[in-house]
């Protein structure tokens, strides 16, 4: 049984007043148990209500985000909710069969140092990284609706060649790393590690239907000074489904023939430029990479989840397409960036409506 919250605790959880909680109870919008003069509400009911029960979740009390039992806090914007904390913990609190679509890009193994203790992607053993993602994505499958789809962007990397750290440079401030993972057992110096496919195949073995491997071609890719191999100009976007039959709006993402004679099914090579972010020292999830996933995998009003929310691109695209979104992010700096970006989009949409 999930934890029971008092009226006051429930108000903090949802970011509203105690009076509003009592109003929800009187209107039978929140199921509760009478306890003396107070009411007790199960955490699972509050989580469900936060995601589905209202169009607006209210503003946090005292200007602070409500804090959950696991120490996470949430930031609210209309149609959008950002949960602060470790996705390994938070995703277990989300209700079953809630989201129509999941779009995400987790930290890549051994590529970036986010300065977070026990961060995903900094595991000394590659198999630990893969197992951690498979466990998270197993929870993703639980919270995904039976007809939902899961879109995973992930890139490959090379062995570090025994290097222990990496400094930044003028062109890429986010390049610096205080650690470098050791070469995985069985591999050699300079080997390409097929991490992307290793994760995809592990997810398939865990029960996912692997439906497409999409090549994200980056015309403006990061230059490389290597002299004995090609410059990497692509990443992978894997499309999974929870069930054999699922929702997929083919018409929403069809492409035009080059001669303009009609429409064709979208192909599996997508040429999309990376997008800089003024507030961050790294390229962000491009909107044009996220948009086809949400258009194909959802209808208006559906719920979208990004368990590695980062700078909030999935939330922005969801807002623009009239979908609701929940994001999970452990880094407070990224949450602040995402909040500002999401609020700017909300303001533009309000101006368009007016």
Give your account of this protein's structure.
By secondary structure, this protein is an alpha/beta fold. The protein folds into two domains: 1-55, Orthogonal Bundle (Multidrug-efflux Transporter Regulator, Chain: A, Domain 2); 67-156 and 196-353, Rossmann fold (3-Layer(aba) Sandwich). 29% of the residues lie in helices and 21% in strands. It contains nine helices and 16 strands. It has helices at 7-14, 18-26, 43-53, 87-90, 126-143, 195-205, 287-297, 313-320, 332-353, and strands spanning 4-5, 33-35, 38-42, 73-77, 80-84, 99-104, 144-154, 157-158, 192-193, 209-217, 234-241, 255-256, 263-264, 269-271, 303-306, 324-329. Strands 4-5-16-15-6-7-11-10-14 form a nine-stranded mixed sheet, sandwiched between helices. The protein has a three-stranded antiparallel sheet with strand order 1-3-2. Strands 8-9 form a two-stranded antiparallel ribbon. It is globular. Residues 54-71 have low confidence and may be disordered.
